[in-house]
Structures are given as structure tokens and as C-alpha cells.
Design brief:
single chain; four-stranded antiparallel beta sheet; two-stranded parallel sheet; Hect_E3_ubiquitin_ligase; PH-like_AREL1; ubiquitin-protein transferase activity
Length: 107
């Protein structure tokens, strides 16, 4: 594959914008949309041959402890201080006062 494009959201101080990130063997290009259909190049970066771009990486897991009887309030309290990077992680939700189910697979 010579040129791969991904749709992303650019977080700017104003409002988030929909952008297109195109990765080719020699450069990374970020394009914005005018009138939602016309692409305009925002910036481009040259990539040296030793640069590795990993798209499918495993996200870190974040453990959330919430109360089952007060699910909305306890989940809001647990996620109140999250940054943008924390929202990209996988969540492992455990309920307070309950034991997890241990699954054993036959050998």
C-alpha cells in the first residue's frame, strides 16, 4: 500500500475539526476540509526511512471502580479528572463490593 489515509479529529482551542491524516512512505500530511468536502493541506512532515509508524498499538488499561447501585454518579466521579490521553485507554470496570468472575478454561 502506497498511501494510507485516516480520518481524525484535531483538538484546537476553538472547536474540534475533522481532518484527514495521510501517511505515505516519505511524508505525513494533515489536511483540513473547507465546506466539508474540499480538502486543504494544513501541514506536511517528511519522514526519514528509519521512522516507524505504528497504527495498531495496544492501549493501556485503566481500572475504574464504580458502585452498581449509583452507576452514573460514581462513574462521573471516577472519570472527572481524566485527560484526553486517559480517554484513549481501555477501561477495566469493576463494581465495588462484588468479586470478579474467574473463568477457567479446560486444558
Amino acid at each position: 500500500r502506497h498511501n494510507i489515509c485516516y480520518e481524525a479529529r484535531l483538538l484546537s482551542p476553538g472547536k474540534p475539526r475533522r481532518v484527514l491524516c495521510c501517511v505515505s512512505p516519505r511524508q505525513l500530511t494533515i489536511k483540513d476540509y473547507i465546506l466539508k468536502i474540499i480538502p486543504k493541506r494544513i501541514t506536511a512532515f517528511r519522514l526519514c526511512p528509519s521512522t516507524k509508524v505504528h497504527v495498531r498499538h495496544a492501549h493501556d488499561k485503566m481500572t475504574l471502580r464504580v458502585a452498581r447501585d449509583d452507576l452514573v454518579a460514581s462513574s462521573l466521579k471516577a472519570t472527572r479528572q481524566f485527560s484526553v490521553a486517559d480517554w484513549c485507554k481501555n477501561f477495566d470496570v469493576t463494581f465495588q463490593g462484588e468479586q470478579g468472575i474467574v473463568q477457567r478454561y479446560p486444558m
